[in-house]
Amino acid sequence: MHSKITDTLKKHQLSVTDSRKKILSFFLQSGNALAHADIEHKSGTEFDRVTIYRTLQTFVEKGIIHTIPTADNSIRYALCKDECVEGHHHDDHVHFICDECGTTYCLDHVSVPKVKLPKGFKAAQTDLVVSGTCNNCEK
Amino acid sequence: MHSKITDTLKKHQLSVTDSRKKILSFFLQSGNALAHADIEHKSGTEFDRVTIYRTLQTFVEKGIIHTIPTADNSIRYALCKDECVEGHHHDDHVHFICDECGTTYCLDHVSVPKVKLPKGFKAAQTDLVVSGTCNNCEK
DNA sequence: TACAACAGTGCAACAATGTTGCAAAATAAT
DNA sequence: ATTATTTTGCAACATTGTTGCACTGTTGTA
Ligand SMILES: [Mn+2]
Ligand SMILES: [Mn+2]
Ligand SMILES: [Zn+2]
Ligand SMILES: [Zn+2]
Prior knowledge:
- Two copies of one chain form a homodimer.
- By secondary structure, chain A is an alpha+beta fold.
- Chain A contains four helices and six strands; from the N terminus they run ααβααβββββ.
- The longest helix of chain A has 14 residues, at 49-62.
- Chain A is globular, with a radius of gyration of 16 Å.
- At the A-B interface, β5 and β6 of A face β5 and β6 of B.
- Bound molecules: manganese (II) ion (2 copies) and zinc ion (ZN) (2 copies).
- One manganese (II) ion is lined by residues 66, 78, 91, 93, 95, 106 of chain A.
- The site of one zinc ion has 7 residues of chain A, from loops.
- Chain A binds a DNA duplex through residues 14-20, 36-37, 47-51, 53-55, 58, 73-74.
C-alpha cells in the first residue's frame, strides 16, 4: 500500500523521509501556496529549519513545487502540476496574492499571455502575479 | 539654480538631504533597476545601511521609485514615470531580468495585458516579470 | 532479515538582511 | 537667527539564509 505522498516522492527519485512526507502533506492539505515561514510554523519543532530550506530547494529542483515571485522578500511555493519534471517546469499560470488575508493562489485556469519583447530580448520564463482582494475576502 | 534631483525631491515634499540626493542620482545614472545591495556597494561607507532602507522605503511611498518582484528574495527598485504620486503608482509596464548579467530592465513600452480573473477576485495591481537573455547578452 | 552503500538530517557556527529606539545632526519654517 | 521638525547614525536586536560535518535513516542487495 502506497500513499499518494510516497508515490510522488518516489516518482521524482527521492528517498522517502519523514520531513519530506510531512512538508509535502502541508502543500496537499493547504491547496494554496506556502512560504518557508508557514511551513516552519506548521511543523513546530518537528524538524530543523535547515531541513525545510533543503527540502524546499530539492522539491523545486525535482519539479514538485514551483516558486512565486513577490515584492515583499518572501518567496511562496506551490505544488506543480504533473507535467513538471526535474529541470523543466510547466507552470504558466497566473498567481494571485490577496492583500487582505495574504493567501497566495495558483489560478491554474488563467494562463499567462505571451508578451512581445524588444529586439534582442529572449524570454525564458514569464511570471504574472496579480494582487488585490480574493473571493474569500470580498466585502 | 535647482538640479533635476533637488526638484524631484521637492516635488514630492521631501527634505533635500545628502543621502536622498545621492541615492536618487544612482537611479538616474544607472537607468536600470537597483537592489538594496547595489546601492550599498555604490555608496561605500558614505551613509548608513539603515538610511538606505529608510530612503528606499520613503521613495516608494512617495512614488519616486517602484518595486519589482523577483523569485530570488531580492527586491529591485526602479524610477517611476512622472505620473506616479504618493499612494498611487502607474507602473503598468513589463519588467525583464537577465539571467546572464542580472540586469533588471523596465520595458516602459511593453504594457501589462489585462487578465480575466475568476469570480470574486479583484485586481489591485498586476506585475509581469519576464526572465531570459537581454539584448546585451544575446549570443 | 542483515549488511553495506548512500542520502538526508540536526546541530553549530556563521553571514546576510532587515527592524527599532533614541540621541545627535541636518533641514525647514518662522 | 532661532525654533520646530525631520532625518540620520549608531547600537542592539530579530529574522532569514548558508555551510561543514558527524550522525542517523533509507535503500538496494544478498
Ligand atoms: Mn502556481
Ligand atoms: Mn519599472
Ligand atoms: Zn483573501
Ligand atoms: Zn544581460
